[in-house]
Automatic annotation (TrEMBL):
<keyword id="KW-0238">DNA-binding</keyword>
<feature type="domain" description="HTH araC/xylS-type">
    <location>
        <begin position="229"/>
        <end position="330"/>
    </location>
</feature>
<keyword id="KW-0805">Transcription regulation</keyword>
<dbReference type="Pfam" id="PF12833">
    <property type="entry name" value="HTH_18"/>
</dbReference>
<dbReference type="InterPro" id="IPR018060">
    <property type="entry name" value="HTH_AraC"/>
</dbReference>
<dbReference type="Pfam" id="PF12625">
    <property type="entry name" value="Arabinose_bd"/>
</dbReference>
<dbReference type="GO" id="GO:0005829">
    <property type="term" value="C:cytosol"/>
</dbReference>
<dbReference type="InterPro" id="IPR032687">
    <property type="entry name" value="AraC-type_N"/>
</dbReference>
<protein>
    <submittedName>
        <fullName>AraC family transcriptional regulator</fullName>
    </submittedName>
</protein>
<dbReference type="GO" id="GO:0003700">
    <property type="term" value="F:DNA-binding transcription factor activity"/>
</dbReference>
<dbReference type="InterPro" id="IPR020449">
    <property type="entry name" value="Tscrpt_reg_AraC-type_HTH"/>
</dbReference>
<keyword id="KW-0804">Transcription</keyword>
<dbReference type="GO" id="GO:0000976">
    <property type="term" value="F:transcription cis-regulatory region binding"/>
</dbReference>
<dbReference type="InterPro" id="IPR009057">
    <property type="entry name" value="Homeodomain-like_sf"/>
</dbReference>
């Protein structure tokens, strides 16, 4: 899972604020180790490490943790100060409510709210779309706060329902990993619904663990998986990294204690298939390996289970609209 890649949409969306301020985008990409083709090809993808590096770079250049996507900037270190202010709260609910009050001290900041509805709870967010046309800041903040809450209580908080106050985006397929759960678009508000009992749980973290957490946060919260236990993620874990030793569908079904027919049906209901999952894993592994210049294209093709480099070229171009060589092309600084 650490080799998961991120769609180029999120790179383009993250750069919106920098473009509005007339920063040198080519120089930013070069400093982040990203080729300019990332912006040109809609199917291109980047590694989680590259993406996190770009986000941290944008924070420094813009002097804004909101990346220029809110009415007012949030100075670097604001998130860390908020985290320090909530770490000693007795329960998750007290921590979230204190964090919400903290950000309300800064006019123009995105507005969070927390409410209970019986056995369920909603964490809602409002971001002015004038400054966030791609809804990048909205999606980023939802990810960060959900993963922060999960970290605070030491367990992943399952999402029961998600609502978004904007139409379904073209990159909706990425939501399967970002926001696993029942999703509704063009809703009256943007928010996450989860079991309210989580709010009563005590915090399991302290100042010592918070220090380690903040060394890379919240950039790594945007780029790493959320610990999802969905069927697709379970299959990815069972397949592992060695593409040459993958089990076939029948073997995989036995490992999951179901029939091949049932497995195919369940994947179809989730809009996927065994072949799609394998292609995505090969694609992400290929992008990861292309970041290691000591490996030749032929060696990478062999590690991915291709009998010939030409077959790898065709597959990679289908996945990303780029050749392996073009993706690996050195970034000029």
């Amino acid at each position: 899972m650490r080799e998961r890649t991120i769609a180029s949409h999120f790179v383009r969306a993250a750069l919106h604020g920098a473009q509005a301020r007339d920063l040198d985008i080519a120089a930013l990409l070069a400093d982040a180790g990203l080729p300019p083709t990332v912006l040109e090809e809609t199917a291109a993808r980047v590694t989680a490490a590259q993406y996190a590096r770009l986000i941290r770079l944008l924070w420094r250049r813009l002097d804004d943790e909101y990346l220029g996507l809110a009415a007012q900037p949030s100075l670097p270190g604001t998130f860390a100060m908020m985290a320090c202010s909530i770490i000693h709260c007795g329960t998750l609910e007290k921590a979230l409510r204190r964090g919400i009050r903290f950000y309300r001290l800064f006019p123009g900041s995105p507005e969070f709210s927390l409410r209970r509805e019986g056995a369920q709870a909603w964490l809602c967010l409002h971001v002015d779309p004038t400054h966030d046309p791609e809804h990048f800041l909205s999606e980023s903040l939802l990810l960060i706060w959900h993963r922060l809450a999960s970290w605070l209580i030491g367990q992943r908080i399952a999402l029961e329902e998600l609502r978004f106050a904007y139409p379904q985006p073209a990159h909706v397929v990425e939501y399967d990993l970002l926001f696993p759960g029942v999703r509704h678009f063009s809703a009256d508000f943007t928010g996450l619904r989860f079991v309210a009992a989580h709010l009563d749980q005590p915090l399991l973290q302290d100042e010592r663990t918070l220090k380690r957490f903040l060394e890379q946060a919240p950039a790594d919260l945007l780029s790493r998986p959320a610990g999802d236990d969905s069927l697709i993620v379970r299959i990815q874990r069972l397949l592992g990294r060695d593409c040459r030793q993958w089990p076939d569908l029948e073997q995989l079904a036995r490992q999951l204690n179901c029939s091949p027919q049932t497995l195919r049906r369940r994947l179809r209901e989730q809009g996927s298939s065994f072949q799609v999952i394998k292609d995505q894993l090969r694609r992400d592994r290929a992008i990861y390996l292309l970041g290691h210049p000591e490996l030749s294209i032929q060696e990478i093709a062999e590690q991915l289970g291709f009998s010939e480099a030409s077959a790898f070229h065709r597959a990679f171009r289908k996945w990303t609209h780029l050749t392996p060589g073009a993706y690996r092309e050195p970034v000029e600084k």
